[in-house]
Amino acid sequence: MNIDHYFKIAEELNVRHKQVSDTIELLDEGATVPFISRYRKEVTGSLDEVQVAAIRDRVQQLRDLDKRREAILKSIREQEKLSPELEAKINKAETMTALEDLYLPYKPKRRTKATIAREKGLEPLAELIFAQESLDLEQEASKYIDAEKEVKDIEEALHGARDIMAEWINENAEIRTKLRKLFIEEGKFVSKVIPGKEEEAIKYKDYFDWTEPIKTAPSHRVLAMRRGEKELFLMLDSSPEELDALAIMEKQVISSQNTSSEQVKLAVKDCYKRLMKPSMETEVRLFTKKKADEGAIKVFAENLRQLLLGAPLGEKSVMAIDPGFRTGCKLVCLGPQGQVLHYDAIYPHEPQRKKAESAAMVKHLVEKHQVEAIAIGNGTAGRESEQFFKSIGLPANVLIVMVNESGASIYSASDVAREEFPDLDLTIRGAVSIGRRLMDPLAELVKIDPKSIGVGQYQHDVDQSALKNSLDDTVMSCVNGVGVEVNTASKQLLTYVSGLGPSLAQNIVAYRNEHGPFKSREEIKSVPRLGDKAYEQAAGFLRIQNAPNPLDRSAVHPERYGLVQKMASDIGSSVTDLMNSEELRQKVLLKNYVTETVGLPTLQDIMAELAKPGRDPRETFEVFSFQEGVNEMKDLKVGMKLPGIITNITNFGAFVDVGVHQDGLVHLSHLADRYISDPNEVITVNQKVEVTVIEVDLARKRIALSMKSDPFAERGKAKAGGGKRAKREEKEPEGDMAAKLAMLKGKFGK
């Protein structure tokens, strides 16, 4: 590892050099981000998960850069073209783009126009012209007329020389750097509908005639325009004014005003149109795509975190319903650990309309299985099913809860579901998933591809590898932050525990099935192929609720059990009594236990854990109900105030479920003022809100909502400005609204 990289990363992240070097050492030894941030605070100086992950990702980027640098140096060296000056430039290059610019003249090429011109012996003529000295151009060019080499006349000789010069200009690293900056800072996205596709491309109507600066285009619009282009509905251009680009290029290469210079100018124009512009457009598209991907992935990952950390109902007996009309409602009764006790189907809706029989069956099953809550999927017939269950006279203590069923159908057809329930129908598996995600969203949602959960922004358009890495990080962070009961966790949940992975997770489940529940964390070491390193990484995140040793139920790492026992012994107490008594814990003087490897951060974590062993960081579950009588979009009226749940947060606002099978959008400009003015106010997925309907478009299935106290007054102000500008500000954040967006995005990480 290049030692300079430690200093670079430390400066970029505003942390100390030693924090970076020690963290990289832990990562290289196989430690995970959750383990490092939770159990190695003394080593890292209490870096959090975000900082540790940033160091991990940045060091990988720099290592990739070094690897590419070595490959380039080797290639040029083998060509015997590596000068000390060039080598110094390559070693100083700080980005992959800068490296590739320097390598471009030496990179093996396919056969180009310049290659053909060289084969015709025209390179000396190109060199002569490029020097731009006064000369008789026609006389010099005539010397290269050669029928055998297919140079028939002066113009053909000059044309070949221009092809060679165009390639030189294109490979000039300084010119490329200046042009790249121009494209990014002054270029514009210009989107137009392909003639004749206006009706077919109606969902891209906003981009039929759209222009905006490349440098300020938000990620959602970049991805939307690219998708429209990919689907052959839009034409998309991304470049600056041609005259500005040519002026920059000419300034770099034109040194005289003579006939040779005129040839160089022609070469510059040819270079720009044929080589430089397509190349820069490709680079800009890649750059803006990467930037848009990063924005979309960040939003998706934070939405996923909030969804995974949704409040669990807990270990209750649950009846789960996958609602439907024609095919009926699939019904499942689940025990407190999520085990399937009974499954059936009821037909309370059209066309069968067997309400009495359905009600009788539900009441019987509720009593038989002592059902404490009913989970109803929020898809087709969801609201109608909710009304049915509320109308049949169930005991008042039975909760009736609408559950977001996004991804349940994906789960039901997955290998995971087939492995869990090989004998159950797909629809029954879907109902099981709905019920279990009410009991514990995290434990159930880890079984579903995060892209199918429904909280993303253009998740299928972004870099899939980067998306997977980010979502894996998010799921792992959530799973380890909450902790996992090793005796009941599924293989999928165990997979995300620090240090495990699919193979060891499967081995844990197999061992558990063969030998019965684990009685201690120490017994986990008996799992085949689970070595000391994996145990070190995983043990603190695994819980054993009924273990004889109370510390096995906590997040205290086994490597610190001796320390806790010493604390208890020093005050004449048992570990159990220490955990049960605040008075005893107050007697422990933490400074007495500070060593070279254990500092106050770890000691404070231990004491907090002793006070609430195995505490669940998630919020307490609260029942939510949609507005009675509002079940479909046609029931919505402008001005109506409704309760709703935030289902998705994007760069342009929040989507809210108001119970009509189509989420409405609260645009950024219609978020409640408190989210802008109060830094402690945050919008989150699963948050309960009150919204006002401000527009309903049945044809396009779009609902516009507002969280403002007087949304129509604000709307009137926007329209008062008149014209296209006012309408655009209503749609997208600009100026002050963009600053407000940045504030909200900054809150997403909280």
UniProtKB/TrEMBL annotation:
<dbReference type="InterPro" id="IPR023319">
    <property type="entry name" value="Tex-like_HTH_dom_sf"/>
</dbReference>
<dbReference type="Pfam" id="PF22706">
    <property type="entry name" value="Tex_central_region"/>
</dbReference>
<dbReference type="InterPro" id="IPR010994">
    <property type="entry name" value="RuvA_2-like"/>
</dbReference>
<protein>
    <submittedName>
        <fullName>RNA-binding transcriptional accessory protein</fullName>
    </submittedName>
</protein>
<dbReference type="InterPro" id="IPR050437">
    <property type="entry name" value="Ribos_protein_bS1-like"/>
</dbReference>
<dbReference type="Pfam" id="PF12836">
    <property type="entry name" value="HHH_3"/>
</dbReference>
<dbReference type="InterPro" id="IPR041692">
    <property type="entry name" value="HHH_9"/>
</dbReference>
<dbReference type="Pfam" id="PF09371">
    <property type="entry name" value="Tex_N"/>
</dbReference>
<dbReference type="InterPro" id="IPR032639">
    <property type="entry name" value="Tex_YqgF"/>
</dbReference>
<dbReference type="InterPro" id="IPR003029">
    <property type="entry name" value="S1_domain"/>
</dbReference>
<dbReference type="InterPro" id="IPR055179">
    <property type="entry name" value="Tex-like_central_region"/>
</dbReference>
<dbReference type="GO" id="GO:0003735">
    <property type="term" value="F:structural constituent of ribosome"/>
</dbReference>
<dbReference type="GO" id="GO:0005737">
    <property type="term" value="C:cytoplasm"/>
</dbReference>
<dbReference type="InterPro" id="IPR044146">
    <property type="entry name" value="S1_Tex"/>
</dbReference>
<feature type="domain" description="S1 motif">
    <location>
        <begin position="639"/>
        <end position="708"/>
    </location>
</feature>
<feature type="coiled-coil region">
    <location>
        <begin position="137"/>
        <end position="164"/>
    </location>
</feature>
<dbReference type="Pfam" id="PF17674">
    <property type="entry name" value="HHH_9"/>
</dbReference>
<dbReference type="GO" id="GO:0006412">
    <property type="term" value="P:translation"/>
</dbReference>
<dbReference type="InterPro" id="IPR012340">
    <property type="entry name" value="NA-bd_OB-fold"/>
</dbReference>
<dbReference type="InterPro" id="IPR018974">
    <property type="entry name" value="Tex-like_N"/>
</dbReference>
<dbReference type="GO" id="GO:0003729">
    <property type="term" value="F:mRNA binding"/>
</dbReference>
<dbReference type="Pfam" id="PF16921">
    <property type="entry name" value="Tex_YqgF"/>
</dbReference>
<dbReference type="GO" id="GO:0006139">
    <property type="term" value="P:nucleobase-containing compound metabolic process"/>
</dbReference>
<dbReference type="InterPro" id="IPR037027">
    <property type="entry name" value="YqgF/RNaseH-like_dom_sf"/>
</dbReference>
<feature type="coiled-coil region">
    <location>
        <begin position="62"/>
        <end position="96"/>
    </location>
</feature>
<keyword id="KW-0175">Coiled coil</keyword>
<dbReference type="InterPro" id="IPR006641">
    <property type="entry name" value="YqgF/RNaseH-like_dom"/>
</dbReference>
<feature type="region of interest" description="Disordered">
    <location>
        <begin position="712"/>
        <end position="736"/>
    </location>
</feature>
<dbReference type="InterPro" id="IPR012337">
    <property type="entry name" value="RNaseH-like_sf"/>
</dbReference>
<dbReference type="Pfam" id="PF00575">
    <property type="entry name" value="S1"/>
</dbReference>
<dbReference type="InterPro" id="IPR023323">
    <property type="entry name" value="Tex-like_dom_sf"/>
</dbReference>
